[in-house]
Give the backbone structure.
Amino acid sequence: MRVSTSQLYRSGVLGMERNQSQLVKLQNQISSGRRILTPADDPVASARALGITQARDVAAQYGRNQADASDRLSLVDSQLNSLTDLLQNVRSRVIQAGNTILADSDRQAIAAEVEARFDEMLGIANSRSAEGDYLFSGYQGGTQPFVRGPAQSAASTSSVTYAGDDGQRLLQVSSSRQMAINFAGSDLFMNIRDANSSSSTHKSAFQTMQEVIDLLRRPLASSTDRTAYSGELQGHLSNLDQTLTNFSRVQSTVGGRLQELDALANSASAIDIQYQQTLSDLQELDYAQALSDFTRQKVSLEAAQKSFVAISGLSLFSYL
Amino acid sequence: MSTGIIGAGLSGLAAAQYGLQTTAHNIANVDTPGFSRQRAIVVSNPALQTGSGYVGQGARVLTIERLYSSFLTDQVQRSQSRSSELETYHAQISQIDNMLADTTTGLSPSLQQFFNGVQQVAANPAQLPAREAMMSSAQGLADRYQSLGNQLTEIADGINVDLRATVTSINSFAEAIASLNQQIGVAQGSTGQPANDLLDTRDQLVLELNQLVQARTTPSGDGGVNVFIGNGQQLVVGSLAGALTTTPSASDPSRLAVGLKTPGGSIQEMPESLLKGGSLGGLLAFRAESLDRVTNDLGRNAASLALAFNAQSSLGQDLLGQSQLSAPPSSFTPDLFVVPPPTVIANANNPAGSPSVSAAFVKPPPFNGNFHTDLGSSDYRLSADASGLTLTRLADNRQWDGADIGAINSELASDPQGFMLASSGGEPLAGSSYLVRPTRDAARNLSVNPALAANPSLIAAAGPIRTTSGQANTGSATISAGSVGPGYADSLAALPVTLAFQGGNLQGFPAGTQVSIDGSAPVLIADPTQGVAYPSGANITLVGSAPPTGISFAINGQPGNGDTFTLVRNDGATADGRNALALAQLQTQATMSGQTASFQQAYAQLVSEVGNQTRQIEVSGIAQQSLLAQAQASREALSGVNLDEEAANLIRYQQAYQASAKAMEIGASLFNTILQIAG
């Protein structure tokens, strides 16, 4: 084919430009480490990368929620430990008080000690989280859940009422799991089955303690008194055990949840590695391949340049 | 005899001179775009008849011709037009491609941060810092949508500017071609010889015109060409040039359309589909096929997010204990995002007295406990004629017909498109049309409700109700936390409601309540003593004003006689984050595209579509470029100047010149010889 002079230059320049644009693209890929510079480079992988990035970020958020849940349940757990210790202590005092040899003054002293435990329990029941929310008030984080009312009769000192609700505070700890991170005070302290009633009525932990205190303060004048005293004390002991059972039921639930959180955290880190791997496969550059391509392209450009110079130097006019 | 030699030699000299002149002209124009090499066509002079036969009388130049093929030139023009179109399209769509390119600056990170913020509120509903953080991430998300939307608007504005400039250039080319037509006519008419260089110049102008818009030429008489664009619209006829102009589109005054100025001076808008090829075709195709779609799709994303989020938010209760249940005056603020309603533009040519038509988004219907929208990414046209109204979805020409707007709306109710129409001042008049753009402006106008931004306590993080079981209950039954759906506030006169279990029935539903068990047809409660058979574990709903949803709960297990279960307003529930959890779940739910895609998936789909389109245009562009290069090479092979060839011609013509001169010298010396004899 006949070739015009300007065609000779144009095709030479075109070839060099093509090589250069390839080189620039490779250079961009190499310097950024990314295989996909714009979605046009690989539309499908770009869309997948967006999906996986979100899945990974969401999983990371679940991970933070798990840690959060774990912190809060651990706080509940330690409060439950204190409560159990406290009740064990009361229980041993009550057993001690069952000894009928004790004088009224001795029982008064025990009563005073149980009274102190009572206050301690009320304190724990009204404890707050690090964020300042009451732990055992259900949804009503700003409402003090347990309030000591005035004495109802001369024989009893006071009663404690529950001002919270049954609400469960939930955290999203995985895509399909919302975990409660609190226990309502009603569940923990109030709705405890009365061991001494044939119908299934409830007696709160506070009432049980109050009744113990009231009983210990009662002077014992006769043997009839003592017999009645022993019987009642036995009944209270059963209710104390009932309360302890309730605490340990809740504590084992807490333990179960903490274990579940551990398991979730373990699988989450495995999944995160998987996501990272997929993302890197989708987006990141295969350096060995890219550098070899770069070298090839460079050789090709140099060849184009040399041949262009050689061809453009050929002119019949040089010999005229 | 010798005079014959001198005459023939002289004609040879002249022919060689023309040859040298033509060669020099070719060399001088080696780089002139559109130049076709020329050559002198030499023929021998008529011979002199003698008794000894015909004696040659030298040569003469018949004409100077250019080496030219109209087929090859047409081919270059056509390829150039398509190549310029793709190049322009690619330059434009690359802007969007680059805008969406970076996974760290696109929409995704803002979306993720926002939902992280929502999760933080779900975890710490009472904490003002968490609420503040959520509002600032909401602001960040709205900013992101706005910034992407604004970039797209800037691209659209840039297209208006480019259109104006392109149309101006097209007009000046048209005038130049018309003027050359005239000059060529004059030049060729007076001599009968081809005006080679003028013809080349005109071909080059037609080629450059094809870079702007596809133009076809047909020869007219006296050497002129007529130029047509689009569907046979005349741009140049002989020495007369027509004119294109830009005019605000009748259907959407915010954008320019291309119009043809008629001889009467009126402007006739040209359908965009007719203007193909060149950068004008590229601009219009990009605007219609890519830019509008991307803008609508991003807007759809923004509007769906706002609508779904607001719908869920309205079912909550804020930190101050306010909800839909609060008696007025209440500052309960259900809308977290503010999104403008769909745009409806009345056609500029509508008959006088046409009513104004508006559109509103449909509140998202509930779906598996959450919300979704039915918005698409197409624009719609509402047109009226004598028989009634037609709403056309422009992307696929799906149509809905109706006698009036009410009829169209009821069709939209069964085939939801995410919006409803309304008209103020009567039904649209026959002959009018309206452009409905549900989501075009949603992204760039999305904003955060300033009331919530100023007071994050108003974020509805809690549920509006809670449940309790009676403390004296003897059975083992428990009641679920309870949830609410749209219209719940209208289901009851007032909370609390206490239900009592008695002999296998639940009693105590307030008179007038509609009770539905597991979504079955609601039963109207006539009297609080009316019993509803106790359904253990079933979902019991006190239906509200938007059936089948309302206030729902379930009671599990065996209650004892006289056991009570109470629904109360969730007063003081500062630590309740149930509604925030539901808000956070919107992130991963199929809230868009016919319940098939989440916000992020819909966005990823958009990114992938733009990527695919860019790639396709790029590949077509490269292919078209090599077609163009081939066409150019074919044309150059015939018409291009080769300097080596011209150098050889120089030598050839030089030698011919020298030889002719020699012949003349010999002729002269012959004459001298005779003179000497005579002398």
Observations:
- The two ends of chain B are 19 Å apart (CA to CA).
- Chain B has a mean pLDDT of 90.
- Chain B is about 45% helix and 20% strand.
- The first strand of chain B starts at residue 38 and ends at 44.
